[in-house]
Specification:
Immunoglobulin-like, homodimer, alpha+beta, TIM Barrel, eight-stranded antiparallel β-sheet
Chain lengths: ~675, ~675
């Protein structure tokens, strides 16, 4: 399909993306700029402050258009009579760019903005689903703790560790947006980029290199655009059925974890997996108990682990672990990788680059070296994890690649940094493929970038605070699912109960229960003990909380047949399982701005309670259907906001009257 | 004297400022850039966030030099064959610039930086005297409360009122710096500008218009450069002798103020003035008691004020009040100004522009209208203040001119904003001149900009927090004196005791006493009750504090003959009374970085105790003299750091052996 049309006009040109005027380039108001600058990077434990020492920003006011057999070519220059600085070849699906001066390392594009336009995507955004009116730097990093300069938590984290973050910080950025004007735009670059949606008349997209391509997508239906993006960036590998047929319990108390699991099963929980991230052993830091980053079973902490895993497998319960792309310098794998030359190096010495992860140091495996990537996939993940019996793991991190690292293939760290999460995902996927476990073994990642979903079967929303806070609490995982879903990622989930507990901020029973309710209606329901398990209430630490959790696991397990159909649909269309309402209900524009609810497929609307002290909740139900409140079974016409009772145990969920899954939903409605 | 030399070189040119290479302009590394942008101004009660929507930044790589009878002219263009964008006429004292495209509204200059270079000035800087390594936006504004993002005070003020500020925020910015390379540079513009001293190889100076001139000054001695700047920007009018012959008591309790003054005199204080800012009456807001901004005596709060003033005058005590350039909309002067058309207008209506000052609104007198300026000088300050009997006042504010205001003379608010403090100073000076009181009546200002000192006889360091904090406490007033002194301003002082008390932060007896000690050694010793007098300890609220204050007023009064000689010197040379050590002791480079001490003239070194809980203190004594510790009279060789006892009542002060004032200093040393 032809998405792009170039229309020479006056002293410039227009460019259409589908039916939307995307660029209006004129001498007096150019849409394209190139320049030069020098990046200044201030990095501290995954938190980055990037600033630009700008030398030049040249409006490319002068354009000439050549017709060639392959299509139109636009030559752009600063002014008539000066050499062109940018060549753009226009094809059906976008623009291929070539900088004609090798010194150019800055690029800006001004796209036409329209009043009321909504803009979705940017990777996985935690604070705002609609990006209109704000600026979004796109650089993989820690998302920050608090993420809101008006909160005490953010202030304390900024003060003590520069780690408070802001609304745009994310583990998974992606230079792609979908416009409500029914087109999508993607910058094909791994450089730092920034989408600035503040100006009422234009969107300014910045990148710290001239992107290879500006890719465009258009369709009348948003769902079709998301499908195109999923095709372009890669369908997520299908979720294994076991992963949504029960809860995955996150416990990390050594072999005590097994007994705790049994107690939770005895309390009525449906369990499909046991995730023990401490399978590698622990080290204690001021942040909390951290893992020992040497990726092999620790049979001191887990004696007879192989046998435990086999026994669980006999009962249909999978065992999951933890890995990340770094190697602690006091571990055996570091020594092995160093001896083989598999570690990324410093610029100033033929020595491994060592990164401070908070009271311990690590080497970085250099995945640009194919032998190193193979080693990690086969020797580490393959032999130490899959062959040992693991069926899954958290594939953590990916955001910390130093920009001043020296890599095997010569890639500049500034360009490798954003690419790293996707490379890391590919190493994990390759390991699974090497053992023929694709579609059966599961790994989940918080870090991401363009294309991560082609390799990683499951995103996870990162490390929320254990609270209801607006920018770092339970509600952010909904926005994360919505935005990453717009990029064509189908599967998303979160740490049940949140992760980060600092400065005395700890989990309440209410938070745990509301988060259980939310996770019951996401494809994977996985709990986490958090960074400071001993300071925080755990699911099995309170009988009411445990009983509620067990009930929610039963709801989750009961939904499995429905989720299986959503997985089928995702495989076919690329549509996410947790879905912005307008993908199914585009003709109801009141849906477009909703960011605290999601369609769980087309037949269910989930509006989790994400504020404390609430026993009622309001939800918007899309026009074009009649909706049945899951628990009492009452009917509501669509196209309106309803207020419903939302006691603990009955999260606001609605299903579509006439759904082929009506019998299942009705049965589930009788479970609470 | 010829300061500037242009040296054509290769594909560009060098430009010398005295003996320093200032510009090294080449095709590959241009020193000059022009561009276009649109300012975005977010203002809230005198706090501003300025951001730039940049369109173009054009390196002016191509230069040609013409010789003309008047001197060299440089034509600068983006590249060969394109029209020149900037014309620079080089003269002995600087560069005259002309933008050749009227659209150009951004300008950048990169000056050569050298390792170890120190940079002083930028107007009145509160946090850093040496600006090397940091970036300084230059825009008159509230200085912020806390001014340090790591403090709870700053966080709370940012959260509640966007008012926390940062190290560079100042009431008095000025686009002028003095380099340790023995030159000074001034940008002749009132536009927003920014001095960026972070890069090790260049200083980048930015302005939001092409400045009319880049003025250069050079001399072998820093003192001579400061003298040149004082000549250029205007000598401060001479301080009236009464202002340094005793303390000015700041009291604002209505007529109770008189009785409190008598009690302080009875306790031994030497008093030369009584400053009652509440002479206009009060209004109460959540920030504290605010004044009623209708500039006339309030004879309800001060019955028989004329008679009180006359009675004080008979005893040689002056009465001072308060004024600022705004008129409360509920006051009579507002109505008068509005009826006469003297108020600045809104862009969108022929209505006065009303500014929110925190729970009350005011109009802005439009001083670009000569009739309005005359009215304010004659009708308000002249008739209501001077004719009434006032001998001085705080001329507050000047930083709040809205950038979107409509002014009588058509000046863009973005250009008028920085100019306003100097215009405001001129209105005050004109009022005083109209009553032939120049050199007798005194006003003092916190706001400033280029040229403010030509009109305003006394700077005041603004509204410190009532504490010892690094960026908003007692120590900042020293840096303020040093930096504003480098601009050629001779007279500076501060609110004794600090001003801002928020969130339970209140004055301690120790703070009041240390501040008394500091003010004794500044030309004007003026107390202030602060924004919340009732919550805070006052000088007369504790017998120990009062007795200490009284002793310090006697020291201050005893110093008057010495201060008179410093005023003579200031009038002659432009050298400040409180003085960076290197102005007198340039040959001792260990002096150059000192920012917590000052020379009180050439014969005295003052090193105030600006930290709590100290009974000893260290001070650096310049090489080239022998120094006598004021109180015990012990001798110290210069060129070293000494640690001395610094109990309350004996601030670390040293005088130069051999000083013609030795007898006076010896006598003062026996007073404690």
């Amino acid at each position: 399909m032809t998405v792009v049309r170039l229309i020479p006009a006056g002293d410039g040109f227009d460019l259409m993306a589908g039916d939307a005027l995307l660029l209006r380039h004129r001498v007096a108001s150019p849409a394209l700029f190139v320049g030069t600058g020098t990046a200044d990077v201030d990095a501290y434990r995954g938190n980055y402050v990037l600033s630009d020492r700008l030398d030049a920003r040249i409006p490319l006011t002068h354009s000439t258009i050549d017709s060639t057999p392959a299509g139109a070519v636009i030559w752009l220059a600063a002014s008539a009579g000066t050499p062109p600085l940018l060549r753009i070849a226009v094809d059906d699906a976008g623009l291929a760019l070539a900088a004609l001066d090798p010194a150019l390392n800055r690029f800006w594009l001004r796209c036409v903005a329209e009043p009321g336009e909504r803009l979705w995507g940017g990777g996985e955004q935690l604070s705002y689903f609609d990006m209109a009116g704000r600026r979004f730097p796109l650089w993989t990093s820690e998302p920050g703790v608090g993420r809101d300069k008006s909160t005490q938590m953010t202030f304390q984290c900024d003060r003590d560790g520069r780690s408070g973050g802001d609304y745009w910080n994310t583990n998974y950025p992606q230079p792609t947006y979908v416009s409500s004007r029914r087109y999508a735009l993607h910058l094909d670059t791994t450089a730092y980029s920034c989408f600035d949606f503040r100006d009422p008349t234009f969107h300014e997209l910045e990148a710290w290199e001239v992107p290879a391509r500006i890719e465009l997508f258009a369709a009348d239906r948003f769902a079709a655009i998301v499908g195109q993006l999923s095709t372009r960036f890669g369908r997520q590998p299908r979720l294994p059925a076991w992963s949504y047929e029960g809860a995955i319990l996150g416990l990390k108390q050594g072999v005590e974890s097994f007994a705790r699991m049994e107690a939770m099963i005895a309390a009525g929980a449906v369990v499909s997996g046991l995730w023990c991230e401490d399978w590698v052993g622990l080290r204690v830091t001021s942040f909390g108990k951290r893992l020992f980053w040497d990726w092999k079973a620790n049979e001191t902490r887990y004696p007879h682990l192989r046998e435990w895993i086999a026994a669980l497998a006999d009962r249909g319960i999978r065992f999951l672990g933890y890995v990340n792309p770094y190697l602690a310098i006091d571990g055996s794998l570091y020594a092995e990788a160093r001896a083989a030359g598999y570690l990324a190096l410093r610029q100033d010495a033929d020595e491994p680059y060592v990164v401070d992860f908070g009271e311990f140091d690590c080497g970085v495996v250099d995945f640009t070296n194919p032998a190193a990537a193979d080693w990690f996939a086969d020797r580490v993940i393959g032999r130490e994890m899959l062959d040992y019996g693991l069926s899954g793991w958290m594939a953590d991190f990916g955001e910390y690649l130093p920009t001043d690292v020296r890599l095997h293939d010569g890639t500049d760290g500034m360009l490798a940094h954003n690419a790293w999460p996707t490379i890391w995902a590919e190493v994990n996927a390759r390991a699974i493929a090497s053992r023929d476990r694709t579609g059966d073994a599961l790994f989940f990642m918080r870090a991401g970038f363009t294309g991560v979903g082609a390799h990683c079967p499951l995103l996870w929303a990162g490390d929320q605070c254990v609270d209801f806070s607006r920018h770092d609490g339970i509600g952010t995982v909904i926005r994360a699912a919505l935005s990453s879903g717009m990029m064509g990622n189908a599967y998303h989930h979160s740490d049940l109960g949140g992760y980060t507990s600092l400065y005395g901020n700890v989990r309440t029973p209410e938070l745990l229960m509301r988060w259980s309710e939310l996770c019951a209606f996401t494809p994977v329901m996985r709990s986490h003990e958090g960074n400071r398990p001993d300071d925080n209430l755990q699911l099995d630490g309170d009988p009411t909380v445990l009983s509620h959790f067990a009930a929610m696991t039963r709801v989750h397990a009961a939904l499995a047949p429905y989720v299986a159909t959503l997985c089928d649909e995702a495989a076919k269309t690329g549509l996410p399982v947790q879905r912005p309402l307008m993908l199914d209900w585009q003709d109801d524009p009141d849906c477009w701005g909703i960011e605290t609810q999601y369609g769980y497929g087309r037949d269910m609307i989930v509006a989790p309670v994400i504020e404390p002290d609430r026993d009622r909740w309001t939800a918007y139900l899309p026009a074009g259907a009649t909706w049945i409140h899951l628990w009492p079974g009452t009917q509501h016409d669509g196209g309106r906001t309803v207020e419903v009772a939302a006691p603990i145990g009955q999260p606001p969920v609605f299903w579509r009257a006439g759904s082929p899954h009506a019998a299942l939903f009705t049965a589930i409605g009788h479970m609470a």
